[in-house]
Write a structure and sequence with these properties.
four-stranded antiparallel β-sheet, alpha+beta, 4 domains, Nucleotidyltransferase, domain 5, 12 strands, five-stranded mixed β-sheet
Length: about 425
């Protein structure tokens, strides 16, 4: 018997001997007086065996079989495909892929007993102030890019562009790009706006794609318009507050997301045999759905703060990189190494010498605007004819003019004085 059973037997012995009453025995055992009387009756019939539970020594009905335990340890071993997964991630993939349902604590105990996992060392304590989450989804997004060897040498290195909601920790956007580039962030803003709506504010780092490093010129100061990057301008036009973080810890939610994805996503890409950016981007939607089901949490305020886009919203006008051009007299502009011929319109017969904007969307399509009105055009393969040059002057026009008769007479008289 274990110490607890020995104590229970001692109390029953004293109760039977009359040195304890039923109420005192019930208080000592932490049970009711009815249970004490039942134990005393059993003690008189069976003796000490009454304090031993009937299931003692029996194998639990829900015990995992040794074959399943051996299979799990083989998958987690040095040669197994789950050799470098953490316990929580491995538990999820065992249920999702291998159809093996097992408790996390049981799995952790097996791995430690087999020497396949070590206890994590705690980091030194640092005093930090906790920032309270936003109350509703869409109030604040954190965006960033993470350059990393996501394919572990099976394909090119890439940057993962992502966005996470501050109120719910829900991943709203993930996309692999060759580098952390402007196109990735334009795709991020456009995709989130179309699927959810416009957020109230966005928290980001000081990358030049998201924040222009240029100093304001005198013209900028007079116009009251500071220098802006293309993405910064998009957020300003859409009414999204741009908040710049001064340290990685300030936007810790998305920094922790990168740490989790560099652990989980890389291994799931390996298990799926992904070896290209196209395959990796096709893998992300299913992974994001499972990640959000596992880690996202409900907001304090169930009413979201997204601002829906109007029905007539022109995505090519707002979610595009812009450049200005001046229209030539023949209604042609040059952009991207090609000539574009602006087509005539009844409402705008002439655009010569006017300034227009060229918008390039992430897919590479080109749109031309005069203000917010889209203009029609067609590309020209050959350059437009140059304006005719002035006719050359005849050679005789360059001779000095012939003197008149009076000038000749004055010159003759002057010579004979």
């Amino acid at each position: 018997m274990n110490p607890e059973q020995q104590r229970e037997a001692e109390i029953l012995t004293r109760l039977e001997a009359g040195t304890l009453d039923v109420t005192t025995a019930a208080d000592l055992l932490g049970i009711s007086t009815r249970q004490v009387r039942r134990l005393r009756a059993g003690f008189r019939q069976e003796g000490m065996a009454v304090v031993v539970h009937g299931n003692s020594g029996r194998a639990p009905a829900n015990r995992t079989t040794p074959e399943v335990e051996a299979q799990i340890l083989a998958l987690a071993g040095p040669e197994g495909k789950y050799h470098d997964l953490n316990v929580c991630h491995m538990q999820e993939l065992l249920a999702h892929v291998e159809q093996i349902v097992i408790g996390r604590s049981t799995l952790d105990r097996w791995l430690r007993a087999a020497g396949l996992r070590q206890a994590a060392t705690a980091a030194p304590a640092v005093h930090r102030h906790r920032r309270v989450r936003r109350t509703a989804e869409g109030m604040l997004l954190q965006i960033d890019g993470s350059p990393f060897d996501w394919l572990e040498g099976r394909g090119p290195t890439a940057s993962l562009i992502g966005a996470i909601d501050d109120a719910t920790s829900r991943v709203l956007f993930l996309r692999f790009r060759p580098t952390e580039d402007q196109v990735g962030y334009v795709l991020l803003l456009r995709t989130i706006a179309q699927e959810y709506g416009l957020p109230m504010s966005i928290y980001h780092d000081r990358h030049t794609i998201l924040r222009s490093p240029k100093q304001a010129t005198l013209d900028d100061e007079l116009a009251g318009q500071p220098p802006m990057s293309q993405v910064q301008r998009m957020m300003a036009e859409l009414g999204i507050e741009s908040i710049t973080a001064h340290s990685p810890q300030a936007k810790g939610r998305i920094e922790r997301l990168w740490g989790t994805l560099q652990d989980r996503l890389t291994k799931e890409l390996r298990l799926a045999g992904v070896a290209s950016l196209e395959q990796a981007n096709a893998f992300l939607p299913g992974f994001s759905a499972r990640y959000n089901a596992r880690f996202a949490q409900p907001p304090c305020d169930p009413e979201p703060a997204w601002v829906p886009l109007p029905a007539d919203f022109d995505t090519a006008y707002y979610f595009a990189v812009r450049e200005t051009r001046k229209v030539r007299a023949d209604h042609c502009i040059r952009f991207g190494g090609q000539w574009l011929q602006l087509l005539p319109e009844a409402t705008q017969p002439s655009l010569a010498a006017q300034t227009i904007t060229v918008h390039v969307v992430p897919e590479g399509a080109i749109y031309v605007y005069r203000g917010t009105r889209r203009l029609s055009y067609r590309p020209i393969t050959a350059p437009p004819p140059a304006p005719p040059a002035p006719a050359p002057e005849p050679a005789w026009s360059k001779l000095p003019p012939a003197p008149d008769a009076k000038a000749k007479q004055r010159a003759w008289l002057h010579g004979h004085r």
